[in-house]
């Protein structure tokens, strides 16, 4: 059981104070505490092992969303994002949703799918039957190609075929345990492809994992009590109904659906990235899932339940993430992220990630249907603009205060306000 932590005024502290609070709450190993205190970056030699033609490292802000209640456990969720207001919005939503009972999550399955695309098939029906009859042999070949995953309790589990145009596509489903499984799948698929060519009397065009991870679905749900939408009961009801309408709008209009889903992915990417996972894979999986019935739609649904008088949210996403493999063990900042979360297994991490997508979506919809996005977002963006305009630390509070009141709030305005402040002093 992970308990709630009393982080008094966490958002108002300086980074050094937040690190001290983390150490005090024993969320980090001593090596990771030292690492954070030194503010060291990914060592260059490690970066050079991770990819090619390396000349440096790119740093991004590493933040924490405190006390996210998921199935009764409280998580301190690491977020990496360059965008102002994303962390504030996730914290805000998580706080309200905690007070309303927390997130509930459910993992529907966790297997990865790969495919071998066959073509030049003389007789598709005969080829399909031959592959069906050889299913056990093919699964054995796949598992022999990657025995370590079988020892860990995973491995190739099932195989099926589908005809699409001139292709006979063979799909392989693999239990990848703690890994995302790209190398595992690709090794297994390449191992079975020559046998498939023989069995099906066909040629193999390619053998590759699919990022459309429909066997790694996770659902997060939550309820929001009306009193957290507004102190005024009638206003709260109107807002709950507007959030329901906003969810409907994202089902019927692709322009809105794309932005709606971008907001969800603000939360998803921030944790996928910091836990060392492949965010391009998750992005492509989520966008493909958004058009599973042929039209691109909003990924979440919100309803105002008139019986319970609560706003109910739901989000289902493919979430094939890993806690082992890839660069996860190499990057010390990624280790810190896993430490902060209490080193969850892949299935647990997938559920935390989807809950953060729903949190982010709730904050955005509440702002959009209420005071508008600019009020909260721009308040936090003021700091970025002030820094970009060249403000020194001491000049920030006054410049930000003036900037929030100014229209248009942009870099030009920030520069001219900074000039006036300097001229007055
Ligand atoms: P507020 O009501 O002014 O916040 O909302 P508050 O000052 O009363 O603080 C309430 C809580 O919010 C705090 O509790 C924090 O948890 C959190 P406390 O710690 O004080 O007990 N919070 C913060 N946490 C860290 N640093 C901060 C901070 N401020 C508040 N500086 C807020 C302000 C920004 C939260 C609200 O207006 C909001 O949620 N806005 C939505 C912002 C958003 O969605 N941003 C994402 C980027 S916009 C985008 O790209 C996506 C979009 O297009 C998606 C879509 O269209 O669907 C919008």
TrEMBL record:
Pathway: Metabolic intermediate metabolism; (R)-mevalonate degradation; (S)-3-hydroxy-3-methylglutaryl-CoA from (R)-mevalonate: step 1/1. It catalyses: (R)-mevalonate + 2 NAD(+) + CoA = (3S)-3-hydroxy-3-methylglutaryl-CoA + 2 NADH + 2 H(+). GO terms for molecular function: hydroxymethylglutaryl-CoA reductase (NADH) activity; hydroxymethylglutaryl-CoA reductase (NADPH) activity. It comes from the Bacteria. Signal peptide: none annotated. GO terms for biological process: coenzyme A metabolic process. InterPro entries: HMG_CoA_Rdtase, HMG_CoA_Rdtase_bac-typ, HMG_CoA_Rdtase_cat_sf, HMG_CoA_Rdtase_NAD(P)-bd_sf, HMG_CoA_Rdtase_sub-bd_dom_sf. Its EC number is 1.1.1.88. Keywords: NAD, Oxidoreductase. Belongs to the HMG-CoA reductase family. This is 3-hydroxy-3-methylglutaryl coenzyme A reductase.
């Amino acid at each position: 059981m992970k308990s709630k932590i009393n982080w008094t005024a966490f958002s108002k502290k300086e980074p050094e104070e937040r690190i001290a609070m983390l150490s005090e709450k024993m969320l980090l190993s001593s090596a990771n505490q030292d690492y954070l205190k030194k503010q060291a970056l990914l060592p260059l030699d490690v970066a050079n092992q991770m990819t090619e033609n390396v000349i440096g490292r790119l740093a991004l802000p590493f933040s924490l969303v405190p006390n996210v209640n998921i199935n009764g456990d409280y998580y301190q969720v690491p977020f990496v994002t360059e965008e102002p207001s994303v962390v504030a919005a996730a914290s805000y939503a998580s706080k309200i949703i905690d007070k309303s009972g927390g997130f509930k999550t459910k993992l529907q399955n966790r297997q990865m799918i790969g495919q071998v695309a066959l073509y030049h098939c003389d007789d598709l029906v005969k080829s399909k039957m031959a592959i069906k009859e050889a299913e056990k042999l093919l699964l054995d070949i796949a598992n022999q190609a990657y025995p370590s995953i079988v020892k860990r309790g995973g491995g190739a589990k099932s195989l099926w075929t589908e005809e699409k145009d001139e292709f006979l596509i063979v799909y392989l489903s693999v239990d990848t345990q703690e890994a995302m499984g790209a190398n595992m799948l690709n090794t297994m698929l390449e191992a079975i492809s020559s046998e498939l060519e023989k069995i099906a009397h066909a040629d193999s065009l390619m053998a590759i994992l699919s990022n459309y991870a429909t066997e790694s679905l996770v659902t997060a749900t939550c309820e929001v009590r009306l009193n957290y939408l507004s102190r005024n009961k009638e206003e709260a009801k109107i807002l709950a109904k507007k959030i329901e309408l906003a969810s409907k709008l994202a089902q019927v209009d692709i322009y809105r659906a794309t932005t709606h889903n971008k907001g969800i992915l603000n939360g998803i990417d921030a944790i996928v990235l910091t836990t060392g996972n492949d965010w391009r894979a998750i992005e492509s999986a989520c966008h493909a899932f958004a058009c599973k019935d042929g039209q691109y739609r909003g990924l979440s649904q919100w309803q105002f339940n008139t019986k319970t008088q609560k706003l109910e949210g739901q989000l289902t996403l493919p979430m094939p993430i890993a806690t082992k493999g890839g660069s996860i063990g190499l990057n010390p900042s990624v280790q810190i992220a896993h430490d902060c979360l209490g080193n969850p297994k892949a299935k647990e991490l997938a559920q935390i990630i989807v809950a953060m997508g729903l949190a982010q979506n709730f904050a955005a919809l509440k702002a959009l249907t209420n005071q508008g996005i600019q009020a909260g977002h721009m308040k936090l963006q003021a700091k970025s603009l002030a820094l970009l305009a060249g403000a020194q630390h001491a000049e920030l509070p006054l410049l930000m205060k003036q900037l929030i009141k100014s229209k248009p709030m942009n870099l030009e305005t920030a520069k001219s306000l900074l000039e006036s402040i300097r001229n007055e002093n």
